[in-house]
Amino acid sequence: MTRYREIQWPWLGLFVAVAIVAQEHIGGWISTQPKLTVNAWRIAVMALALSSLTLLILPGRRAGFALGAIVCAALMGFALYAQYGLGLEPCPLCVLQRIAVIACGVVCALAAIHNPGRVGAIVYSVLGFVIAAAGATVSTRHVWLQSLPPSEVPACGPGLNYMLETLPFAEVLSKVFLGSGECAAADWIFLGLSMPAWMLVWFIAIMVASIALIDRG
After folding, report:
1. What is the pLDDT of residues 129-164, one digit of tens each?
2. Cα separation of 67 and 177, whole Å?
3. CATH 1.20.1550.10 for domain 35-215
4. Considering only Cβ atoms within 10 Å of each terminal Cβ, which end of the chain, N or C, has fewer?
5. Rounded CA separation 129/208 (Å)
6. Burial 141-174 (b: 16+ CB within 10 A, else e)
């Protein structure tokens, strides 16, 4: 595991003070900007924080992949709780993000069981990175839809099950990715971020962890 040099508290205190002052000034400017800019700033901050924390606590290669599988299982567990406990029905874009999380979890679980060497770790890591990047792309589209002014939100479309039954799969994916009115609703907010915004944060952290695990022993 990577070891970091000891940071003297005066430098840490100075850094924290500068960060707080910068946050106040940037926060004042951000509050006057369009919703998309606000969301992008919050996502960037949380992604930086979560990715940094991931790198600090990331264990060895096998344990790291196992931890990734546990995180993906926890994310899916919360998604199911939100659906059946809070009554938040997933929109088509949410379903695609769930598929990406499940796929990342499967890759991590297989890697943890296999316990590969460096070459195998590269294969698993690249595969996990690509899947997380695909999920991040869907999340980005979802956040963009939620940031639109009400007058620009697209009309609600048919349900996912209906489209799968009546349309070719490629056309279903195209329509789902374009999004519709139900995808623009932000029914759950935590620390100023909606659920797809948090999923984008997690996908970025998974991408960072995927690359970092290649060099973990």
Report:
1. 999 999 999 999 888 888 877 665 555 544 555 455
2. 30
3. yes
4. C
5. 8
6. bbbbbbbeeeeebeeebeebeebeeeeeeeebee
